[in-house]
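cache lookup: miss for this entity combination. No prior model stored, computing from scratch. Input as submitted by user K.M.:
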Amino acid sequence: MNLNAEKIATNLRKGVLEYCVLALLSERDMYGLEIANQLVELELTASEGSLYPLLARMKDAGSVRTRWEQADGSRSRKYYAITDNGKESLELFGSVWGQLSNQVDGLLGGHHV
Amino acid sequence: MFSTKPDVTAKRYLRQLSGYLADLPEAQRRVILQDISEHSEESRISGRTESEAIGALGEPREVAKASRSELGVPEPRGTGPWPVGNTLIGTAIALATFTAAIVSFFLRNAEGQHPDYTSSTQRSLTSLVELYGPGIAVLTLVPAALLAVLLLVPLRMRRWATLICAVAASVLVISNPIDAGLFYVPMTIVIWLATMLPFAKSLQAGRGESLVLRIIGVLIMLLPVALLASGVERGNVGVFMIPALIWAVACLAISIGIMLNWRISYWAVLAYGVLALIVAVFDSGMLVAAIWMFGGIVLTFGIYGLLRLRPRAGITR
């Protein structure tokens, strides 16, 4: 990917990352590293560190909640779970995304054809 | 098996990030730092190398930027990426310059003073510049210049450089060149603070530290008042009664503010310290060194209060 393409992708990802996290958490509860690994694998984020401020805001906004769970040994992990509030906004995002991508696809298709 | 102790790289990363996040509300800052610390530990346990794990986190500066935008904290203006450290170093530079001025121009050399001379004849004594020539003025400015260089040192080496400066300043005080060592004490204290405060785990003082330091602050505020009051009792002070009374009331008010941990009281302490330093320079009588030291300590306490007892971000907590 060249630099401009990277820039476009970064800008677009920024707006949807939050909902990608919600989508991941709607499948099952995850701890930070799991979420980060998934997002990196899907090439949705490049900076794992920036995930945590996002998660902190989502928690403040009430779309996720956290709980501590015993991992192996004495360590414990902070698990993130989606809330009803989060499910609602994920659903809403889904419909907006569907609409938007249709419109954009149509527009782009129109240009290309 | 894997050690659970964070590696040096992770530690350094967290320290840098902590510095960049200095202006965030303490609670949120702590959560982000803790999350990232756990993340790096988890990735290490999952088999990634330390540098892989740290590399994947992204630049501390970027993470800090993301944190600010997520939490709606505006980008800091003009304070740079190291606000606490820069404030302290800036203060130390100001003190070093001020010290250079007082040592070179205002301090009277007592050498050769006739034992019968009264304080009114001190005017006839020579200042260091008059005694040794303008070269001495340049020489006394060396600490200020070195501190200014400190601001140019890359952030990751800043701690060591600051430590070296602190040790050098302490040596300067102890070796006491041209009898001026004592005057560099306030600057030295501030540099020592600069080696510690910006790198502390938590930017805001814990409850115990806060209480102890506030009690010390109140003592600093009230001790001179108590000394004066005992003087009044013995009838030594008469003419200055009204200004002294105003001063005593002001000190008392500031002390109450300190106990309540009001941010404004630390600004008042800071102003009081600066005033004492100015008085020491322009009214350099017998007590010059004492007033200078007192002013320096008061000023340092004010800065400490503003940076650590009641940091700006703490208000939004």
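stored under new cache key. The CA atoms of residues 42 and 48 of chain B lie 9 Å apart.
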